[in-house]
Amino acid sequence: MKTQGLSSQNVSGRAVLLIAKSAFAASPHLEMQRLAKLAAGVTGAGPVRFAFTEQGTPSLREALSDLLDEDVEIVVIVPLVLPMEPSFLIWLTKSLKRWKAADSRRWPVLSIARDIASSTLMARLIGELLETAEALDVPQTDKPPVAEGSLVPTQKRRVLVCQGGPCNAAGADVIWGHLRNQQERQKLRTAGDGTMTAKSTCLGPCNLAPVLQVFPEGTYYGGVNEDAIDRIIGEHLLGGGIVEDFAYHPTGRKQRLRTPSE
Hints:
Blueprint: E1 14-20, H1 26-40, E2 48-52, H2 60-69, E3 74-79, H3 86-102, E4 109-112, H4 122-130, E5 157-162, H5 165-169, H6 172-185, E6 195-200, E7 212-215, E8 219-221, H7 226-237, E9 247-248
Parallel strand pairs: 1-2, 1-3, 3-4, 5-6
Antiparallel strand pairs: 5-7, 7-8, 8-9
Organism: Neorhizobium galegae bv. orientalis str. HAMBI 540
InterPro entries: CbiX-like (IPR002762), Thioredoxin-like_sf (IPR036249)
GO molecular function: lyase activity; metal ion binding
């Protein structure tokens, strides 16, 4: 996706969307609010919003949905992500196309800025950060550190979200983010049998990406999107039933990705 710079674009009807990976507490949200205010001061920036591609609210999809209701003509997505992995733009583009196809509202023109590390100002920024360095005061002691105890989790369910190459390219990060956001919203750690979630290395069936696996049943789900996550939460994690529309069972034979209607 190529577009002109902010200063040379027609500013009428344009919005800027800053995106970061995740936020687990209030302070990162406040930091993104601060960055949005800074961006709003850039000449020609237009209205500025922020979102998170993984855990954190608003999610990227939610922020885009809100902008659709604001009747903007152009949305410039600015990734504040370091480092930006090669798969980032691949799954981001695929996710945007999927969301657009599923939403009948009129969509603005979407463009994506280059990664922040490519800025010609990066060397200057690093130099300024070096000037802020402060020495750490770490007292020396002969006493061994006190071992801390841990509670063994009581949750009976586990959801593993594959982070292998094909799954990342298919949008595993955004699926992970939706799952984690729903885990917080629906209090899944304590609801039902209790659910814990985790990222995983390759789970095996790469051609069914993006893939996740639900335990204790060990059920594989492939071709997962946000709607599938919502159904898996309601019907499997809370209801105890396998969602066959997205489930893939060991058959001893290779299986292709199917549509839910197959």
